[in-house]
Write a structure and sequence with these properties.
Length: 308
Amino acid sequence: MNLKFCNFGKFICLISLGILLLLSFIISLDYFFYYSYKGTNKNAKSLRDYVLNYKDKTQNEINAKYIFDNDRDRKFRTAQNINSSLKPVLIFGASSVYGLNLDENETVSYNLAKLTKRPVYNRTKPEASLNHMYYQLSNNDFYKIVPKPEYILYFYVPKQYVLMNNKLDFCQHDVYYKLKNNKLIRLIRIPIIKKSYLIAKLNIIKFQKYGLRYFLNNKNNKLFEKILIESKNEAQKHYGKDVKFVIINCSFDDLQKETFKSLSDNGFMIFDLYKFININDKIHKDASRPNAKYWQKAAIITVDKLKL
């Protein structure tokens, strides 16, 4: 009896040790991908920052970052032409629309403001997804800060679809939604799978190898469409029905044809920018991101075709 008990105890110890070693390996690998990721120019990659990135953000912290712009990290781009009497333009998108690694005068918002003389508000940050657009537009305080625009421009690339529901980059994506009874519910506690840098690396590999096709499914498609529709509804509820919501499609995305048709039927303007300029041309890219040349040309084409 005692011998069996001792053998069982050893077995439990070995299993526990194996689990501990496996967890240590996974955590070490996770930290390695955090530390080695070169997708941003952020230098601070301490162990302390790594641990803090797993902490769920409070409502006040999220508001400070995306509504009031009081966060210690990157600020929104400077609003342009704020004293102009012309009707403003409001911009959303991801890190490329923010202009990560670009100077202020190389961004799409700067170029749009220069060409139109309108006030232009770029409410995008490096880690933003369409979730952050909806988060801002569904917050009453946002409308005390950003005046009524004539146009809301959402710049779409397929990566945005993935970012909506998956970690794909260096940063912790801090705002996620799920659909419940056809309503958007924000996740207060974000699952670890949406924070892990190891999972992010795997997602990057899958996205590079299989593209959007790997992530595309009926559930995600409904969420994608719902976030966009509710973003427009919130904007028009606060600003008025005359606000034009434009989805600017920067990349050819054959998989989303039906979705964009449905969105068009729901009152969105769809502008296929990719038909006039190729975002993947080498002359338009620095590393993996659109460069200053791309955004200068994209702004000229957008202003001309949309009659801004």
